[in-house]
Amino acid sequence: MTLGTHVAFASVFYLGGATLFGYKPDLIGGLLIVVTSILPDIDHPPAKIGRLFWFVPVPLERCFGHRTLTHSLVALGTLAAVTSPLAWIQPHYSSSTVCPGSTVIFSMS
Length: 109
Hints:
The chain is mainly α. The protein has helices at about 5-20, 25-40, 50, 55-65, 75-85, 85-90, 95-109.
């Protein structure tokens, strides 16, 4: 998946959740979705996020390969743990872990 498809899938789930659960999407939630949806590609040096953080993807790819560690339930659980305090600010910010989880599932298929 490319940056655009990661963001598109995550946005669909975020906006679909807004419709389904009745919360109002906002800029912060949208930014969280964009950032967390492109994080799984940090293990791929040619990816935009891999080029931005050039010192991270090469060791990750050498040790684990592409679409292994960062496209796993371990990474999703870590992201959930890191972003869970955001749910205290706005409950729907917890979707910042659900939406990237959907892109991880779609990119593995």
